[in-house]
Amino acid sequence: MARQMDTESASVLRGFRPNLYKTTLCLAYQSLGIVYGDLSISPIYVYRSTFSGDLHLYEDDHEILGVLSIVFWTLTLIPLCKYIIFVLGADDNGEGGTFALYSSLCRHSRMGLLNTVHPGHERISSYCSEIPTKDTRMSLLIKEFFEKHKSSRIVLLLVVFLGTGMIIGDGILTPTMSVLSAVYGIRIKAPDLHENYTVFIACIILVGLFALQHYGTHKVGFLFAPIMLIWLLCISGVGMYNIFRWNPRVIGALSPYYIYNFFIKTGRIGWSSLGGVVLCLTGTEAMFADLGHFSKLSIRIAFTGLVYPCLVLAYMGEAAYLSKNKMDISSSFYKAIPEVMFWPVLIIATLASVVGSQAIISATFSIVSQCRALRCFPRVKIKHTSNQIHGQIYIPEVNWMLMMSCLAVVIGFRDTRMIGNAYGLAGVTVMFITTCLMFLIISTVWKKNVLLAVLFFVVFGSLELLYISACLGKVHHGGWLPLLFALVIVSLMSIWNYGTLKKDAFELENKVSLDRLLSLGPSLGIARVPGICLLYSNVAFGLPPMFAHFVTNFPAFHHTLIFVTLKSLMVPKVPVVERFHVNRIGPPELSIFRCIVRYFP
Q1: What sign results for the dihedral spanned by CA atoms 110, 116, 120, 122?
Q2: pLDDT higher for 370 or 347?
Q3: Mean pLDDT for the stretch of residues 432-441
């Protein structure tokens, strides 16, 4: 019998593994059209933005080789090392993003001001699946510091709000920057085309992009993934062509020596140009924020196997072209394309720019859903578009608000250089906030040696701070826009969270006991009428004050009364047996019950 069971188990595993591999590869393919669109189209505007200021190209090529070396090592350190290796491992029950990190910190310590786990939920199996480990001395000290100082918890929450605001602001800037940059390629062949026409075309494309969102991540991913795959193969092929045709020596720029040489020769001007170089990182945060739509393994496979090598070849090829055609810097990406391939590449670039916007739009949906679950965002309608992947959602109100904001930025700014200044600051600020939160995750949740957390912060945080300092120098040239967006979002979230806490505090302070209500019953002349009444409130113990107010003014309620409390949880799936917690209130003849509904929003 045991041998038969082993044989059956082995056959099940043999059937399970191919399905797992197939699902993972399918998700990796879909992620090309959702996660990596923004990151993959950055070669269109990185060099142009970098050399749009005081930095110029000279005959000895140290500027272009230095910028190429910075781009290569930035892509290697931030997306590949930081996000693929470390940050993706810090998911919160399959969810990623700034609020997921904060939710994890709140659940494992008392650092947070948000009640991410209700007292009645600690026994949920989804929350208890993690293997407990012993706290280190430093993790205990960090937790004690946050517990003793409420101001530190307030600052931490505001930092998380700021990161969330920057991501949502990024959801407005990414589509505008991506689509405008691609559409402006038409002016390479039609230089007399008026700017109003390019802006109008960009607006039409943006409206079409947001109109597609209601189909869901699964369908949009399959629609966009082939475009992104063709785009990546196209830019890598053009990159290899330019390397061998114009300057094979650019391969040597992979040496970090060229970074040192670049800053020695350019000084302050070189530092200022980092505000353009940082655009090569646009869309990196989406790898983590979009985690709920896919899986860690699928995102890692797509990036390391295809996206990363293709991007490196694209940047090297454009640098090789620029080293021999320095006058074409304002439109180097399109000028570097062989003449026979120009129009096909332009069409693919325009389609890819639409795809590039998808990453941050999906990430915005995920972030808003997490904020709403933690009661830091107004109630919005969330549509789940997949039965298999819990994080694939669509939020109509957020979608149309993003569209209107994008159209306003396109029509108002028109200039991709100014939008780029805003774009870079928003993206790198979110990355630095993620680095700060990861320091706390490594030391208090993972409970690793604090030296590892410090090393993580020093290596990645110092690089991101360098980019932030360069972007802050361009605040008056468009960099104020993400700060304005973040201020509006932070204010909205803070006010909503404050009002929610005050409402909960009032209900808890004024809740009514059943005995007191029953004692008043005869004097009020309370009557019972046939039927069932569902009364919703946030009070999990006692009777909500609104019910007492109702009975006092209208002394009657139904024969069966059920108090319903909805509790949203940051877990991908609540087991069926744990979704409803029902108990009786008072003696059986009263037929009064309380039902706590636990669900993923």
Answers
A1: negative
A2: 347
A3: 92
Please provide residue 101's backbone torsions phi and psi, each rounded to the nearest 5 degrees.
Answer: -65, -45
**Is the C-alpha dihedral spanning 85, 89, 94, 97 positive or negative?**
negative
Contact status, residue 209 vs residue 224, Cβ threshold 8 Å: no
Higher pLDDT, 133 or 48: 48
The two three-digit tokens of residue 234, written as one number: 């196209």
Range of 111-125, 156-170, 587-601 with top mean pLDDT: 156-170
Top-confidence residue, 404 or 114: 404
Of the candidates 162, 158, 30, the one whose C-alpha atom is nearest the C-alpha of residue 426 is 162
* Alpha-carbon span 70 to 518, nearest angstrom: 74
3-state secondary structure of 595: strand
Q: Give the distance from CA 274 to its chain's centroid.
A: 23
How far is residue 65's CA from residue 251's CA, in Å, rounded to a whole number? Answer: 9
What are 346's two structure tokens?
């332009």
Q: How many residues does this entry show for the chain?
A: 601
Contact yes or no for 333/43 (Cβ under 8 A): yes
Region of 58 (left: φ > 0; alpha: ψ -120 to 50; beta: rest) is beta
Pairwise CA distance, residues 170 & 406, whole Å: 10
Amino acid letter, 441: I
Compare 52 and 242 and report the one with higher pLDDT.
242
- Residue 543's φ and ψ, nearest 5 degrees, are -105, 135
Using a 10 angstrom Cβ sphere, with 0-12 exposed, 13-18 middle and 19 or more buried, the burial of residue 152 is middle
Distances (CA, A) of 461 to 438, 440, 466, 585: 10, 13, 9, 54
In the chain, the domains with their CATH numbers are 12-497 (1.20.1740.10), 510-599 (no CATH)
SS3 for 115-174 is CCCCHHHCCCCCCCCCCCCCCCHHHHHHHHHHHHCHHHHHHHHHHHHHHHHHHHHHHHHH
Please determine, for residue 490, whether its predicted confidence score (pLDDT) is greater than 80: yes
**How many other CB atoms are found less than 10 A from the CB of residue 291?**
26
Q: Rounded distance, CA 331 to CA 202, Å?
A: 18
* Average pLDDT rounded to a whole number, residues 554-573: 75
Confidence band for 458, pLDDT divided at 50, 70 and 90? very high
Task: Report in angstroms the alpha-carbon separations of 236 from 306, 307, 327.
Answer: 10, 10, 23
CA dist 276 and 112 (Å) reads 36
Is the distance from CB of 64 to CB of 247 less than 8 angstroms?
A: no
Residues 6+ apart with CB under 8 A from 423: 170, 173, 174, 177, 279, 282, 482
Give per-residue pLDDT as tens, 24-38: 888 888 888 778 877
Cβ neighbours of residue 296 closer than 8 Å, sequence gap 6 or more: 88, 89, 91
Cα–Cα distance measured from residue 167 to residue 165, given in angstroms and rounded to the nearest whole number: 5
Max mean pLDDT range (43-52, 71-80, 274-283): 71-80
| Torsional sign, CA 266, 241, 287, 208 | positive
